[in-house]
């Protein structure tokens, strides 16, 4: 028996390696021009699609923001007695969907409850209305202030005049 015909087994016994055949080098053919053009257009289309999706998500996911708020009395009480006056806060937003949390402060009463107003997407102006009832004979000038708590704190106010001459 020859040495290379011996059978070996068990751990630590090396396995003889077989020689690997030499493969001929493949001739590299240049890619046709139309394949390069298709590849370039595909890459540009993918990039454009990613940009569009990114802008869409950025628009949809950015939160509601308050740009400004003003308070006014569109129809003052004048010289009328026992009247309800509308105090209107006009809130300008960035047009995003969200919730405005706010409360009214009146100079003749404790702070009101915190209220909410739903804002729809694309809605840039929101009206918050306080109905204030005056009664009796006399003259007074009070203050109404809207306190927006969310999405960002902001306040705006105005004076409300009431004059009821003697009956």
UniProtKB/TrEMBL annotation:
Which keywords has UniProt assigned to this entry?
Answer: Membrane, Transmembrane, Transmembrane helix
Positions of transmembrane segments: 37-58
Its domain of life?
A: Bacteria
The protein, known as: Ig-like domain-containing protein
Tell me the lineage of the source organism: Bacteria, Bacillati, Actinomycetota, Actinomycetes, Micromonosporales
